[in-house]
Amino acid sequence: MTGPLLELRELSVARRARALLSDASLALGPGECVGLIGPNGAGKTTLMRAALGLLRHRGHSSLATMPALARANHVGFLPQTRAVAWPMPVRDVVALGLLPHRRQGSALPDVAARRVETVLEDLGLMAFAHRPATELSGGELARVLLARVLVQNTPLIFTDEPAAGLDPAQQIALMQRFRQLSDAGQGILVSLHDLGLAARYCTRLVILQQGRIVADGPPDAVLTPNRMAEVFGLRAGFVETGDGRFLVPLALAEATR
Fold first, then answer.
1. What average pLDDT does range 21-25 have in this prediction?
2. Can you tell me the distance from the alpha carbon of 249 to that of 9, in angstroms, rounded to the nearest whole number?
3. Most C-beta atoms within 10 A of its C-beta, which of 21, 35, 99, 167?
4. Nearest 5°: phi and psi at 214?
């Protein structure tokens, strides 16, 4: 595929005459790991769901115009809500990510079936393969649902607050994996509240405030002191370490105290 993996033009969502998202325009190409950041209620989840065609919207989304099967083969989605209603074995939950690759009445290609084993191994989930998914901890279930998305093997991945509920080591491992995937050519759109993780691992950041995109660019250019204060109510600074440059929240901005 040539061109962007995602293109949004003036995407807007309203509910009961209240604007939840206003004229959001962005494009995301192969090799990008784009962090979608902003305060609670800024419109991050709304943007993702509207882009996927899951919410009524105005404007254009290249994904929403795709037929369902084509969209399922193009983009994987890990939503913020994590739930498995039935006590299915973990292996079977992960294998659901293969459904877009299976044609009615035909068996799965062997290479697709082997992908389940590879992803389970990569995410350290082989020990859980036969355990009912309903018996897992919140962090374990988060990794299983991520595995289901990775098995789908799409050019584009949407993931909404994937680091929530994970311990620090798992959060770092998760973001490292997203960056590895983007470095290998996939496109990643990841919604995050942890600005340190966003600044460290994302190639680009998009800031939403009150339903509008107010900044879009490299982390250093986007996370300026003025913008940190205006959007997040924080004083923050970058600290140089032997492992790289880190964003560190320091205190509440004066105006928010």
1. 97
2. 33
3. 21
4. -110, -10
Pairing type for strands 244-252 and 234-241 reads antiparallel
108: left (phi over 0), alpha (psi -120 to 50) or beta: beta
Asked: is 6-218 a CATH 3.40.50.300 domain? The reply is yes
Whole-prediction pTM: 0.93
| DSSP code, position 242 | T
Residue 107 has pLDDT above 70, yes or no: no
What pLDDT was estimated at residue 118? 94
Q: Domain boundaries in the chain?
A: 6-218, 224-257
Q: How confident is the model over 90-99, as pLDDT tens digits? A: 999 999 999 8
The DSSP result for 26-84, as a single string, is EEE-TT-EEEEE-STTSSHHHHHHHHTT-S--EEEETTTTS-HHHHHHHEEEE-S----
For residue 82, pLDDT over 80 is answered with yes
Instruction: Name the residue type at position 18.
Output: R
Distance (Å, whole) CA 40 – CA 210: 9
